[in-house]
């Protein structure tokens, strides 16, 4: 089996920094997918105390006007975290849309202490490698 260097064939971009999230909507930093032909969105959850934490993705052609990603834009679905059974977990959803920019949104309701979470967008299949 050949060993290959994945580091220089993908690029990890943080959209939502690690934080304890309470009530409200947190919109992550947009990730520019120009120069890449694929992307996956990862959402990591740590300790859950209370509330319902629902991740989703938004997309944009110009980096200014964003719309929600529909089922045709995603390979897989995000799941809401609302209990200890889904805490300390990782969700991965492929982005198969055609827009240039993608960001992650975390919507939290019913939380006092909340839950720890973060999100990354990993761009892959670069048109020009190495990426770093």
Task: Describe the overall structure.
- The chain has 132 residues and is an all-beta fold.
- The protein has a single domain (22-126), classed as Jelly Rolls (Sandwich), CATH 2.60.120.1110.
- It contains no helices and 10 strands.
- The chain has strands spanning 10-21, 24-27, 31-32, 36-48, 52-60, 67-68, 74-75, 89-95, 101-109, 115-126.
- The chain has a 5-stranded antiparallel beta sheet, with no helix packed on it. Strands 2, 3, 5, 6 and 9 form a 5-stranded antiparallel beta sheet that branches.
- Strand 5 (52-60) and strand 6 (67-68) form a beta hairpin.
- The protein is globular and about 45 Å long.
- It starts with 9 loop residues before the first strand and ends in a 6-residue tail after the last strand.
- The mean pLDDT is 95.
Compute the average pLDDT. 95
Low-confidence residue ranges:
none
Question: Might you state the CATH topology name?
Answer: Jelly Rolls
Spatial gap, N to C terminus: 25 Å
- Provide the gyration radius in Å: 15 Å
Classify the helix fraction into a percent range.
Answer: under 10%
Major β-sheet strand ordering: 1-10-4-8-7
- The structure class reads mainly beta
Overall number of strands? 10
Shape: globular
Order of helices and strands: EEEEEEEEEE
Summarize the structure.
The chain is mainly beta.
Mind sketching the topology for me?
Layout (H helix, E strand, L loop, with lengths): L9 E12 L2 E4 L3 E2 L3 E13 L3 E9 L6 E2 L5 E2 L13 E7 L5 E9 L5 E12 L6
Antiparallel strand pairs: 1-10, 2-9, 3-9, 4-8, 4-10, 5-6, 5-9, 7-8
């Amino acid at each position: 089996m050949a060993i290959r260097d994945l580091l220089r064939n993908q690029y990890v971009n943080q959209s939502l920094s690690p934080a304890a999230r309470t009530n409200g909507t947190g919109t992550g930093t947009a990730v520019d997918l120009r120069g890449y032909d694929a992307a996956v969105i990862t959402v990591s959850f740590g300790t859950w105390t209370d509330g319902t934490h629902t991740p989703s993705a938004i997309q944009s052609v110009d980096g200014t006007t964003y719309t929600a990603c529909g089922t045709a834009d995603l390979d897989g679905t995000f799941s809401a975290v609302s209990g200890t059974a889904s805490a300390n977990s990782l969700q991965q959803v492929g982005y198969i849309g055609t827009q240039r920019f993608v960001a992650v949104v975390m919507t939290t309701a019913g939380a006092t202490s909340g839950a720890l979470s973060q999100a990354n967008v990993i761009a892959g299949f670069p048109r020009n490698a190495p990426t770093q």
